[in-house]
């Protein structure tokens, strides 16, 4: 039965080979034959205490070794029903529409935990967002995001209607237009990527 030898095993084989080669070139045994643990430690490049621990484990398990923590079970994941999935989707939209923030896993996770009693990890939430049809991709510019908000678009339309109606008035009834200031979006606050719905 040919098992794949992992890199750590190949490294130990190479160290044993180099040790045997050094003994061949010296034409003598470099470590006392009676000190088996020290001899093994010298050949494998490990400490004597590590060799003793491995030998003890091998004697206990009849030469069968298992990687520590390899079969460790992960944290049980809460099964989410359609209601919970819809609530998570609504939370993402809530960030855009009400909070006026870009949702990230860092600021979305506490909200989902509080609202739904969600006890999963950040990585699990990321997978849920992907199954819900969200994609983590490059954000639009903040200026575009603010301009396209419905309430700002409505105010812009009302403003333009007033300007046009003022311009269409006769000269004596026309009011002077005074521009006081311009509003801007804070350009230094920007995220390169955010969660966006595919649809």
From TrEMBL:
What name appears for this protein in its UniProt entry? Winged helix-turn helix domain-containing protein
Top-level lineage group:
Eukaryota
Specify the species. Answer: Operophtera brumata
């Amino acid at each position: 039965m040919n098992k794949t030898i992992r890199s750590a095993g190949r490294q130990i084989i190479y160290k044993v080979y180099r040790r045997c080669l050094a003994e061949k070139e010296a034409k003598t045994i470099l470590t006392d034959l009676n000190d088996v643990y020290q001899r093994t430690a010298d050949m494998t490049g490990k400490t004597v205490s590590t060799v003793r621990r491995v030998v003890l484990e091998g004697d206990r398990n009849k030469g069968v070794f298992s990687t520590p923590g390899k079969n460790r079970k992960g944290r049980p994941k809460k099964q989410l029903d359609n209601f919970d999935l819809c609530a998570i989707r609504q939370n993402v939209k809530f960030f855009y529409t009400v909070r006026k923030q870009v949702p990230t896993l860092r600021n979305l996770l506490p909200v989902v935990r509080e609202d739904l009693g969600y006890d999963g990890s950040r990585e699990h939430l990321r997978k849920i967002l992907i199954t819900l049809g969200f994609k983590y991709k490059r954000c639009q510019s903040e200026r575009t995001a603010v301009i396209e908000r419905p309430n700002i678009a409505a105010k812009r339309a009302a403003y333009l209607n007033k300007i046009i109606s003022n311009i269409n008035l006769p000269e004596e009834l026309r009011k002077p237009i005074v521009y006081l200031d311009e509003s801007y979006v804070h350009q230094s606050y920007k995220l390169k990527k955010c969660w966006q719905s595919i649809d």
